[in-house]
């Protein structure tokens, strides 16, 4: 690590460029000056390795070039991929990411929003579980996966379409006795549409579709019991199961193994998220893949758009199917 | 989402508290005033819902209450757990986390440091791969997993001790023909000590220990070939393998399966990191667990310590062994 003695100041830049201090200040604050002056100042700054004090800049131009990203957790692979995408998309536009983690706590989420507003960020991208969130309407906000109101733009995967895709895939692979399993937050969110889309396909065909929906507080035991209660002569009443996410699909595969059932031979299983081992390895299971990179990119784009007067209230991005060993293909 | 009309100003707080504007300013900038004044201002601010403009504060007190966290990637579960730990530890101390992702690119790392210095952050926590990093010596810096010089404090797991622990565990489980496998960055780092610790145990006992060390550029094929080349009459020349990380251990298990070998019956396998499926599920493999939370907490503590004149240059935190199905216990 190399050492440096003292940082050059704006005065040094003015001396080096042979211009007045006020001219340097104008250039650094994007106030118009003659093209020749701008060039001289920029070249002098480069030669000296001068670094603009963005804090002072933030005060003067009322822009901080910072965006807050609020997530419940970033150890879950979906959230960490989302954080990576948002951080990279912001960096590409010259914005800093201020990361806040809320641990799924509605109060922490509200506190987080307050803190972030104190920082005078230029906007917030949030994936939150507090339906009553109080957000300063002057601050651009983009919600991920949770729809608040027509005035708060939301970006999500096409969850309904993903549910339909899972149903069509199971039908194509010969399943006739479908089941939808869900465990998640009490707070309604876009991901609830996964089951709706799945069931709609069977309803349209006049086929029955079983479903079990649980809240996190109830834990996974009821799912294990439900599956055990639907065994009949060593066979399960269902031959195709769609789980609300990959993590649940992996647990359900374990429950099926306990019942002596083989996946995909006896039961085919599709999850949702598109998670991979160590982020880049194999898929955990056959799955509906969320376009995480596009979610992040679209969220950042909607947040930073110059004209935000005509933003859509909900943008749903297309999902895809990927085979990951828990279906016959 | 509730709406609000206009934010209260410092003037409003002064009026509400019945004090001079200068007194309000002093309180918000931590300049001593009479205790009674401080209380009146704080209560008025609370009643009005006044939010301190931290940017202005940053300029005046020369503190930004922001710390930059520089990581190569946060989709890898070790890095996302580390990011979560650092962000939480900073938040608990009233600091914001500015997240920067460098994609393992030494130039991007240097750029990142420059950008971060422009932000006038209070310090940097970095896990980087650029051995020539040019960091402003006036800015507190804590390095994770990479030792630069005695003047740059580094926090890491006890990698050497972890290697020894893996060796002792394999010996205890009856292994007599050990192998160490490594793939990673060309840039030397603390994690290189894992193999050193492992080999040292066998050297002390006068036992042979094979090793294969590769750089990322070489890919995993040489490891597959090496294992295939050490098959003899349906048996592998090694009965205990220590892999430099869990991701490699999982791949090696696949390679062994291709050779018709059972883990842990024919070969026992230990990784390093302590990663779990979906962050909270089962371990991927038997493993040496890094104390990620303590790494984050210690890094933040060393960065923000009031008196930084007497910091250690390297702090190694203890690791533990966890059985995860690839060893006999």
Order of helices and strands of chain A: HHHHEHEHEEEHEHEHEEEHEEHEE
Mean pLDDT of chain A: 89
- Largest interface (CB < 8 Å): A-B, 61 and 61 residues
Tell me the fraction of residues in β-strands of chain A, as a range. Answer: 15-25%
How would you describe this protein?
The structure is a homodimer of 329-residue chains. Chain A is built from eleven helices and 14 strands. Chain A is α/β, with parallel strands linked by helices. The longest helix of chain A is centred in the N-terminal third of the chain and has 16 residues, at 77-92. The termini of chain A are far apart. Chain A has a six-stranded parallel sheet, with helices on both faces. In chain A, strands 7-6-10-11-12-14 form a six-stranded mixed sheet, sandwiched between helices. In chain A, helix 1 (10-17) crosses helix 2 (21-28) and helix 5 (77-92) crosses helix 11 (292-304). Chain A has three domains: 10-52, 434 Repressor (Amino-terminal Domain) (Orthogonal Bundle); 66-157 and 292-317, Rossmann fold, CATH 3.40.50; 159-291, Response regulator (Rossmann fold, 3-Layer(aba) Sandwich). Residues 1-5 and 54-60 of chain A have low confidence and may be disordered. In chain A, 39% of the residues lie in helices and 19% in strands. The interface between A and B is large, with 61 and 61 residues.
């Amino acid at each position: 690590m190399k050492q440096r003695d003292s940082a050059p100041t704006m005065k040094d830049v003015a001396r080096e460029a042979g211009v007045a201090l006020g001219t340097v200040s104008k250039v650094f604050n994007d106030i118009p000056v003659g093209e020749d002056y701008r060039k001289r100042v920029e070249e002098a700054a480069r030669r000296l390795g001068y670094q603009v004090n963005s804090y002072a800049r933030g005060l003067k131009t009322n822009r901080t070039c910072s965006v807050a990203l609020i997530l419940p957790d970033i150890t879950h692979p979906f959230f960490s991929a989302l954080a990576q995408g948002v951080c990279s998309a912001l960096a590409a536009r010259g914005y800093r990411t201020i990361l806040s983690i809320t641990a799924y706590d509605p109060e922490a989420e509200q506190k987080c929003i307050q803190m972030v507003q104190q920082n005078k960020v230029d906007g917030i991208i949030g994936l939150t579980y507090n339906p009553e969130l109080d957000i300063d309407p002057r601050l651009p906000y983009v919600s991920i996966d949770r729809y608040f109101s027509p005035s708060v733009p939301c970006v999500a995967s096409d969850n309904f379409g993903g549910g339909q895709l899972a149903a069509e895939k199971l039908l194509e692979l010969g399943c006739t006795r479908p089941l939808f399993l869900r465990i998640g937050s009490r707070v309604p969110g876009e991901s609830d549409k996964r089951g709706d889309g799945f069931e709609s396909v069977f309803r349209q065909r006049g086929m029955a579709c079983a479903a079990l929906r649980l809240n996190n507080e109830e834990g996974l035991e009821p799912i294990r019991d439900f599956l055990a209660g639907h065994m009949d002569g060593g066979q399960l009443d269902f031959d195709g199961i769609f789980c609300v996410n990959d993590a649940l699909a992996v647990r359900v595969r374990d429950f099926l193994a306990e019942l002596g059932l083989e996946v995909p031979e006896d039961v085919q299983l599709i999850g949702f998220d598109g998670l991979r081992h160590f982020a880049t390895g194999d898929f955990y299971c056959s799955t509906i893949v969320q376009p995480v990179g596009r979610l992040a990119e679209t969220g950042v784009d909607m947040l930073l758009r110059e004209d935000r007067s005509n933003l859509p209230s909900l943008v749903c991005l297309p999902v895809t199917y990927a085979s990951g060993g828990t279906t016959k293909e």
